[in-house]
Amino acid sequence: MKIAFCYPGQGVQQVGMAEGFVKSEVCYKDMIAEASDASGIDMNKLLFEPNEDINITEFTQPALVTACCIITDALLKAGIKPDITAGLSLGEYCSLYAAGALSFRDAVALTRVRGRLMSNAVPTGQGSMAAVIGLDKETVESITDKIEGVWPANFNCPGQIVITGRKEAVQEAMPLCTEAGAKKVVELNVSGPFHSPLLEGAGAELGKELESVEFKDLQLPYIPNVNATPVTDKDKIKDLLQAQVSSPVMWEQTLYELEKAGVDTIIEVGPGRTIAGFVRKTVPGIKVIGVSTPEDIEKLLQTIG
């Protein structure tokens, strides 16, 4: 087997994620304590008690990273190791952790800052995003090129592209996508125009934070969102993470790259099954196994023998 660990982005978060691991072993309780200290958030409360904060970007990001890194450690402890990693938007930080380049503490601290910068980059209500179903890349780009203030944000899989930008520009593009043959165009419930040039300032501020972070040598390749090209050089990471904030997420291309690398099994680490859906529509020959609980790891061990 050639295994990739893949990590979801914002939107899959839920209260209770990784709780089974934290209840079972002290080492994961210690990770919760470290995450609380690194982020300045009561992570135990945010992850395991009913609350609305978990859906607010600056809290969502470190919470999801904390949960996914705990699950990653449990997989590694069980002897399940990746050959390559990738993550969707926020998930890129988890993929860097799994690849050995980023410490847990830095991943949590950085994503708290990243979430805050992304939330504050554009005043609430002025930015928007919309999912376009059923159009190809060229058609969507031909529409966004005509309208100032709207851009492609995510190339998730064939026939599923997200656009982003100023709210009025996104709303102007939506009916044009429908006229061009889109099966569905849905405005998303998000707090800003993520992965658009409107967030270049946020990326620059994040870049200043990244200057103080020590990235370690990568133990295995990871695929960044910006160019979907495997990276093994730690010196490239800072620029890629800065650019990622305001650049499109090349996820469809990432999946093709995993296939090209010979990956036959993707382990989707964390809650939700969004990645499995994208894989099915892009590289259906790759098997996807979701892992979000200790029971999932037990089943996985039985599967891979």
Task: List descriptors.
single chain; 305 residues; alpha/beta; Malonyl-Coenzyme A Acyl Carrier Protein, domain 2; Alpha-Beta Plaits; 4-stranded antiparallel beta sheet; 9 strands
SSE layout and pairing:
Elements: E1 3-7, H1 19-24, H2 26-39, H3 43-48, H4 57-77, E2 84-87, H5 91-98, H6 104-120, E3 127-133, H7 137-144, E4 150-157, E5 160-166, H8 167-179, E6 184-187, H9 200-210, E7 222-223, H10 237-244, H11 251-260, E8 265-269, H12 274-282, E9 287-291, H13 294-304
Parallel strand pairs: 1-2, 1-8, 2-7, 8-9
Antiparallel strand pairs: 3-5, 3-6, 4-5
Helix pairs in contact: 2-4, 2-6, 4-5, 4-6, 6-9, 9-10
- CATH topology annotation of the largest domain: Malonyl-Coenzyme A Acyl Carrier Protein, domain 2
Provide the spatial order of strands within the biggest beta sheet.
7-2-1-8-9
* CATH architectural arrangement of the largest domain: 3-Layer(aba) Sandwich
Biggest sheet features? 5 strands, parallel
Briefly say what this structure is.
Helix content is 47%, strand content 15%.
Describe the structure.
This protein has about 300 residues and is α/β, with parallel strands linked by helices. It folds into two domains: about 5-120 and about 195-305, Malonyl-Coenzyme A Acyl Carrier Protein, domain 2; about 125-185, 2-Layer Sandwich (Alpha-Beta Plaits), CATH 3.30.70.250. The chain has 13 helices and nine strands. The protein has helices at about 20-25, 25-40, 45-50, 55-75, 90-100, 105-120, 135-145, 165-180, 200-210, 235-245, 250-260, 275-280, 295-305; strands spanning about 5, 85, 125-135, 150-155, 160-165, 185, 220-225, 265-270, 285-290. The chain has a five-stranded parallel sheet, sandwiched between helices. Strand 4 and strand 5 form a beta hairpin. The longest helix has 21 residues, at about 55-75. The radius of gyration is 18 Å and the shape is globular. About 50% of the residues are buried.
